Amino acid sequence: MPDFSQVTERQRQIYEFIRDKIESRGYGPTVREIGMKFEIKSPNGVMCHLKALEKKGLIKREEHAARAIQLVDHRPPAAGLPFLGLVAAGAPIPALEQAERIVFDDLFGGEDRFALQVRGNSMIDSHIEDGDYVVIKRQETAENGARVVAMIDNEVTLKRFYKEKDRIRLEPANGTMEPIFVDSSRDIRILGVLQGVLRKC
Fold first, then answer.
1. Over pLDDT 90: what percentage of the chain?
2. Is 59 exposed, middle or buried (0-12, 13-18, 19+ CB in 10 A)?
3. Distance of CA 117 to the CA centre of its chain
4. Mind listing the domains of the chain with CATH numbers?
5. Residue range 67-73: average pLDDT?
6. Is 51 marked active-site?
7. Could you give the CA distance from residue 176 to residue 122 in angstroms, rounded to a whole number?
8. Could you give the angle at the alpha carbon of 156 between the alpha carbons of 104 and 141, nearest 5°?
């Protein structure tokens, strides 16, 4: 636990802001971000606080690096969620706790992945609802039947992809909606293929 007995209230607030940025996005704030957050107009004013925190052993900085503020003796929270085992969706099964964590980057992460939030109900029969987040693997081709994100004339949609003789059919998973047919006169591009769905209940 850091020793805040020798720091001012403002220095403590700045330390906590640095910690929050490191934990939430993986790297610390810039001098400019700290100045904007705490309405410190001069970069030198921010630097005075950082030098004080460094002198008191709470942070360390690398010169000439914009986001190179690190916390001393700080352990970031463990990534992922505790994995407690299996739960039955049929007959009950024994409750056996697992001492593991699930890191969602391992399931869905990668440089070729991105996420989108769904708007609308055209894919509800595929258990993809309005407000869900979908993880997409970036690629420009797809097999028939794959759920893809396609761009048509600079608009994007999530549908099942089917390549037909002289057109492409984008099929919704909703019995009340019609498919979208795209012929060669329109600009269509596959942006990626569905990898997973995340829902915040």
1. 32
2. buried
3. 11
4. 9-71 (1.10.10.10), 106-198 (2.10.109.10)
5. 76
6. no
7. 9
8. 70
Single pTM value for the model: 0.55
Kindly report each contact of residues 169-177 with a partner whose C-beta sits within 8 Å and lies 24 or more positions away, as own/partner: 172/122, 172/123, 173/122, 173/123, 173/124, 173/125, 173/126, 173/128, 174/121, 174/122, 174/123, 174/124, 174/125, 175/125, 177/122
Q: Which amino acid appears at position 76 of this protein?
A: P
% of the chain surpassing 70 pLDDT: 79
Q: How far, in Å, CA of 60 to CA of 195, rounded?
A: 40
Q: Clarify whether 159 is annotated catalytic.
A: yes
Neighbours of 71 (CB within 10 A): 18
Given the residues 37, 42, 122, 200, select the one marked as catalytic.
122
Region 21-45: mean pLDDT is 86
* Mean pLDDT on 151-167: 89
Q: Is 56 exposed, middle or buried (0-12, 13-18, 19+ CB in 10 A)?
A: middle
Which of 21, 137, 159, 163 is flagged as catalytic? 159
User: What pLDDT, in 10s, does the model give residues 133-145?
Assistant: 888 888 999 999 9
